[in-house]
Target: Protein BatD
Amino acid sequence: MKLIKYISLFLILFATGFASAQIKFEAKVSKTKLGVNERLRVDFEMNKDGDNFNPPDFENFTVIGGPNTSVSNSWVNGVRSFSKTYSYFLAPKRQGKFSIKQATIEIDGETYKTQVVTVEITSAVERPNDPDNAINVADDNIHLVAEISKTNPYLNEAITVVYKLYVSPNTGVSNWREIDNPKFNDFWSQNIDMKGVKVENGTYKGEDYRFVVLRKTVLYPQKTGKLEIEPLSLDLTVEVPTNRRDIFGGRLMTQVHKTVSAGSNTITVKPLPEEGKPDNFTGAVGKFDFKITTSKTTLNATESLQARVEVSGNGNLKLFQLPKLTLPSSLEVYEPEHAENVNTNLNGMQGNISDSYTIVPQFKGKYPIPNVSFSYFDLETGTYKTMSSGEIIIDVLEGPTNNSNSDNNFASTGAEKQKVVLSTNQFAFIKSDPNLTCTQPSYFFKSTWFWTALFAPLLAIPLAIVFRKKKAERDADVFGNKVRKADKLARKYLSEAKKALGQKEAFYIALEKALHNYLKAKLYIETSDLSKDKIKSLLLEKGVDESSVIEFNSILKNCELARYTPITNVEMQNDYEKAASTISVIDKQMN
Model:
């Protein structure tokens, strides 16, 4: 019985020790249910240091902070306890149930993954009315507004949507990006180009504010009834004043991230009236002029002229069809060339559209271009208007006369039919001399390729033996393989950093990984030993001058700070070039 007791105790102790030695890599969230206006903290925690940490893409969230790294290392009764955590702070983009996918990390040459975590995002929740809370201050002092020029337009009548961001005088915005763009379904839309952003003074709900115009869009509704204009949403970095002051008495500011939305708007589109609608109406709405012009009215047969059908003015110029020309069959007419000279501003489309017809008369005579009419709906009077071009006579002075009856209403005739004479050399283009040449067949047997294919495998055997021996030696070099792998990863992440230029988070994560793997390859140290003092001392021992070491450490510092401060594309490009040149300099100087 005692023996069984001792064996059981041994097995329990062994299992406990084995469990304590297991590597753990877990994902933890601050809460599994939160409002769309709340923030979520996600921790990726491990009990042993690793390399090449890759977070999930957080596709349904906006990363507003992180990654923050914390390391805990302690000894209790001679037992080491280690913990390392990567923390992210996320803002939900919309309501629903979403999964935070797996993160990965390499520990002792093995890849570990976290479990998938599901969180539920509900509608906005009420928060305590704390006037000193920075987020509440930002809510009260930042407003995104969509100003609509008209909420009950006619079908195909132009309306404008101007998006303005209002900011109170004691608050600032240091950075913003669009996270949800309106799609303008059931509208023809065009954004108006804006050159720069200008800060202006104005009022919002009777109070003084500053504002900037972020976007101007012209819309032409294509359906009647109630239509929704989807909201524009922005992610902002807001500078909010605090109760703390500097040594000169000035109020200190703090940064908070905030998502603002212009909200959805509904307009009611009226149908065009049926009363008085002309039969030739094709949907033109606005104020227009109409005309038909020809490049000449007197010419000879087989010469060409241009007939131009043109509509000009202000309205939905790109959204209706021009009337077609109807011409006698004795006039050869080519497909028209359509041209548009249209500018779009806050007043809608302005300019002209035209169809140009190329006409070639075949016979002598006088040919009329019949009267053509064009109708449009006039928004000023609320009625339909019709304009006519008038008849234009084309006088063909010289050429054969047409004796058919099909065009008697259009021109005088009197010519006799001419007999068609076939040419005697109409098949002269067929070649009768083939110029054939005789070729000898070639055989594979006993050819050069035959002997090469026969002896090549025999010659490859000694090469394969040498290659296998070299590979075995290389696989046995554990330390060398580790260095080569780190060097390869450094080049890989430096390349990824270059591809991610313009994406702040991805760029600086890749750049930091490239620098760390470069140090591991050159200095033979682990990630846990990458302190700035240790890096400096090791590089100086390797013969690198102090200015290059300081430059390298400054780049590492930039990678840490850049995640929490606004960074421009130019600054990212400078950091990348500085990192590449510094690595090159250190390579040349290192013993």
The chain has a mean pLDDT of 80. The first strand starts at residue 25 and ends at 29. The radius of gyration is 39 Å. The chain has four domains: 21-122, 134-269, 285-396, 478-589.
